[in-house]
Amino acid sequence: MNLPISYVKTRNKTELADLKAHLKKLKIDCIITGAVASEYQKQRIDLLAHELGIRSFSPIWRKNEKVLEEMMRYFEIYMVAVAAEGIDAKFLSKRFDADMLEKLKKLKIHPFLEGGEGETFVSDAPFFSHRLKIGGWDFLLGNTSSTAKIAGLSKIPKC
After folding, report:
1. Residue-level pLDDT at 15
2. Which of 4, 46, 101, 118, by CA, is between 20 and 30 Å from 36?
3. Are 116 and 83 in contact (CB under 8 A)?
């Protein structure tokens, strides 16, 4: 898609304010989210978009697991954060695929990670102009949550 990648450092109590300040600098006209089922998350992003005077779009809002299964087939997705009992650091940097989906189901974790149990990063999708190759991972392990920070990305042209 040839869009720049932007990282925003946030603090829990000010994450929306931090995100809003950063988005203002980017001069964007739309926010696209991966919200699926959480009214709370969707409302927060919709409100943020409204405050910025831009549109909010959630293409997988209220979609079912079949959409997730299709995404896993065509997208390259990695787990980059975990924050729930039963889902620990061993999930970090792993490909989000059918095996991971089964593990999450057994743990009774929402398959779209809608409750904040984890976060993902998409490195390739059919609409990407380039595949993003992850150079490595830096792990930040905590008691209740852990993250895998991407240590370098490079663009790989698609055929």
Report:
1. 84
2. 4
3. yes
